[in-house]
Design a protein that fits this description.
Its EC number is 3.4.-.-. It comes from Sinorhizobium mexicanum. Belongs to the SOS response-associated peptidase family. By secondary structure, the chain is mostly beta strands. It has one domain: hypothetical protein yedk fold (Alpha-Beta Complex), CATH 3.90.1680. The chain is built from 1 helix and 6 strands; from the N terminus they run ββββββα. A hairpin with a 6-residue loop joins strand 2 and strand 3. It is flat and about 50 Å long. The mean pLDDT is 92.
Amino acid sequence: MCGRAGIWETWRNPETDEDIRTFCVVTCTPNEMMAAIHDRMPVILYREDYERWLSIEPDPFDLMKPFPAELMMMWRIGRKVGSPKNDTADILDPIEPAF
């Protein structure tokens, strides 16, 4: 099991006094699998690193590295995934040709 690294904060709009939660996915250089499709990838954490990532430790930089490609799987999916109106699980079904 693994998780994605991210950071978040609550920002208060000074004009409306409304709290807005913001979120960012932390990325790193890609592993050899992901480099074939993009110049970066999400930081993927092992379960045993969750607590450390979520702690108040100021510098967990050693966790911000590419996840091993041999522990990942990849398959080609259709273009429907690019639109939020396509909100069904089948958009992640593999299509041919596979990688």
